[in-house]
């Protein structure tokens, strides 16, 4: 099987409108579109969120996370949760539901396991990106979390197509890591109308070159990926024994970089509760 040819065919299909969404994701798309309207009022937004129970639960959970509830006042209703989070964060959560649903509902236990692990990986990267953005690279934290949420959209769509393409997930992942992820990822990101700055950050992630000191949205995503405790099931070791696509930092020892008067490991240790809380809130 020429896997790159298959990836190109799948990407062409996405571009021609073959990307289908489950009902819950369709509701999330409507929420995202409504929140893009500057005339959208909070009552209307809350009503739309309530129409999708999974999204409503995650919105309330996020509003009660350490990051958004530093005063310790719990939220129990969707409207208050939306008000606390703001439309940008609710929009990111809607995209999280869309991304998670892209893999469909595979009946194969192996595919179910891969989809679950891929979302665990995604949620951790998104949470880490949010913290790294605020504490290290000083880019917008909400945008960084959004980038983490969508950086594996191509992988979720790949899993949805695995049953239709027998052998696509067999063997090593050279073809995926050396072109397939970019081919399919770009196509899905464009259909989902992901903002250009986020697409550019994901392109930087695919390139794998981290600036020292890190300062950009792409650097934020690369750091989050490298520090994620849950590996992507799609980033397997290739036939040459190396995991391609990782940040080029000359070895993992360089991860504990000095940032002013602090170290990266110290910053993340301080933010461990926040990362855990955000990760939990992102679990669909």
UniProtKB/TrEMBL annotation:
UniProt-listed PROSITE patterns: HDOD
Top-level taxon: Bacteria
Domain annotation HDOD: ranges: 21-208
InterPro entries per record: HDOD, RNase_Y/CdgJ
Matching PANTHER family: PTHR33525, RIBONUCLEASE Y
Protein name in the entry: HD-like signal output (HDOD) protein
Naturally occurring in which organism (per UniProt): Azospira oryzae
């Amino acid at each position: 099987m020429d896997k790159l040819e298959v990836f190109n065919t799948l990407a062409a299909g996405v571009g021609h409108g073959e990307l289908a969404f489950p009902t819950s994701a369709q509701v999330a798309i409507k929420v995202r579109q409504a929140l893009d309207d500057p005339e959208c009022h909070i009552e209307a937004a809350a009503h739309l969120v309530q129409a999708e129970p999974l999204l409503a639960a995650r919105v309330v959970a996020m509003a009660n996370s350490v990051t958004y509830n530093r005063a310790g006042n719990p939220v129990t209703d969707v409207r208050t949760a939306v008000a606390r989070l703001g439309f940008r964060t609710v929009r990111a959560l809607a995209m999280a539901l869309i991304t998670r649903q892209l893999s469909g509902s595979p009946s194969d236990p192996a595919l179910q396991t891969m989809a679950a692990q891929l979302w665990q990986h995604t949620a951790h990267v998104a949470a880490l990106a949010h913290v790294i953005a605020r504490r290290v690279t000083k880019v917008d934290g909400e945008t960084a979390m959004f980038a983490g949420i969508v950086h594996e959209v191509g992988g979720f769509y790949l899993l949805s197509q695995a049953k239709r393409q027998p052998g696509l997930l067999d063997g090593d992942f050279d073809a995926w890591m050396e072109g397939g992820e970019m081919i399919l990822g770009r196509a899905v990101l464009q259909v989902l109308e992901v903002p250009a700055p986020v697409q550019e950050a994901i392109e930087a992630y695919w390139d794998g070159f981290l600036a020292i000191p890190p300062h950009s949205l792409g650097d934020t995503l690369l750091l989050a990926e490298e520090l994620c405790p849950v590996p992507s099931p799609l980033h397997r070791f290739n036939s040459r024994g190396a995991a391609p696509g990782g940040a080029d930092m000359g070895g993992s020892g360089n991860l504990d970089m000095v940032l002013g008067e602090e170290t990266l490991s110290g910053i993340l240790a301080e933010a461990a509760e926040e990362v855990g809380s955000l990760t939990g809130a992102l679990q669909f």
